[in-house]
Write a sequence for this structure.
């Protein structure tokens, strides 16, 4: 039976962030009116007292734990201890608070970085514990994977309805474009747009371009998370992605073309590649709660580039979604289905 979210008090940790704000927008779009999306300056979830105050004041019935400390390869290399500790302690304390305060449904977001470095492609959820994650983001991946163990342990001992989702690399309007901490798509977009604007003849990119990645538009991810909150109650983790694989070299060339940058790409092979391949088996998400990604990579990239060109943080993610809808309309596609229904 589907969980009726519209009548629930819903806490979205990280609700002011890139993904969290899209989850909040999606929830509001289906009629949810009691949503808390606290900022870190109000409730620092690494502190037990702040977590207690938050749950005591709002008394959530549903919790979506989207708060995380994240970044690209460089940020993970520079902050392994911080990424491990803050992601682990936030999740452990939030899940424990959900137990103590009798939360009806807990949705915990993990990461594709938890998979072993040499997981067979496509990544199936049963392979999650078959080896050690890729070294550059292992502390982050292990911290998140520990939360799956906590969810399953609490389900076994306390009967807690906690589900665990494994989103792939996300992108879209509202993403982090800071060169010190951004992920690959915003980093490439910024490099290409700035090099084009300055008339530079080349850009330097990390690694050799051979690794593959899978990407999911952030609005699609928010839809999947709300669908799972409504319809999924299982103990097993669930991949959330598009199921489409692209090499970093091909991605860079596609972004350069969309940014109208015609300079050379020089690959710095002294820099790490990261995990060799990433692509998910997404059949469980479709089977269990009817999610299938519907935003094509080309359309999502155009919407993200348009958002960045229009001023980036000066625009809202909603403006990028409007541009995406316009791209779909020109292509003769139907609008995205509402997240309140299984497809």
């Amino acid at each position: 039976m589907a969980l009726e979210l519209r009548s629930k008090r819903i806490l979205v940790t990280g609700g002011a962030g890139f993904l969290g704000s899209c989850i909040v927008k999606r929830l509001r779009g289906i009629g949810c009116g009691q949503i808390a999306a606290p900022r870190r300056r109000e409730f620092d979830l690494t502190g037990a007292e702040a977590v207690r105050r938050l749950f005591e004041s709002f008394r959530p019935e549903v919790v979506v734990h989207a708060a995380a400390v994240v970044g690209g390869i460089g940020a993970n290399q520079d902050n392994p201890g911080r990424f491990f500790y803050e992601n682990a302690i936030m999740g452990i304390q939030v899940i424990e608070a959900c137990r103590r305060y009798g939360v009806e449904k807990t949705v915990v977001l993990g990461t594709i970085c938890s998979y072993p470095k040499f997981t067979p492609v496509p990544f199936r959820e049963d392979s999650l514990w078959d080896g050690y994650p890729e070294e550059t983001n292992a502390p982050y991946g292990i911290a998140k994977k520990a939360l799956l163990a906590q969810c399953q342990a609490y389900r076994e001992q306390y009967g807690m309805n906690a589900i665990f989702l494994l989103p792939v690399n996300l992108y879209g309007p509202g993403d982090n474009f800071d060169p010190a901490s951004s992920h690959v798509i915003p980093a490439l977009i910024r490099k290409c747009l700035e090099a084009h604007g300055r008339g530079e003849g080349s850009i330097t990119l990390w690694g050799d371009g051979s690794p593959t990645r899978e990407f999911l538009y952030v609005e699609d991810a928010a839809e999947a998370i709300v669908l799972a909150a409504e319809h999924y109650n299982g103990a097993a983790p669930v991949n959330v992605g598009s199921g489409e694989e692209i090499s970093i070299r091909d991605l860079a060339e596609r972004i350069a073309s969309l940014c109208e940058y015609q300079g050379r790409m020089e690959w710095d092979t002294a820099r790490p590649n990261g995990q060799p391949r990433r692509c998910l088996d997404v059949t469980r998400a479709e089977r269990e709660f009817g999610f299938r990604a519907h935003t094509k990579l080309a359309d999502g990239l155009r919407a993200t580039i348009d958002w960045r060109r229009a001023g980036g943080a000066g625009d809202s993610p909603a403006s990028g979604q409007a541009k995406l809808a316009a791209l779909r309309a020109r292509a003769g596609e139907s609008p995205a289905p509402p997240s309140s229904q299984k497809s």
Remarks:
- The first helix runs from residue 18 to 29.
- The chain is about 40% helix and 15% strand.
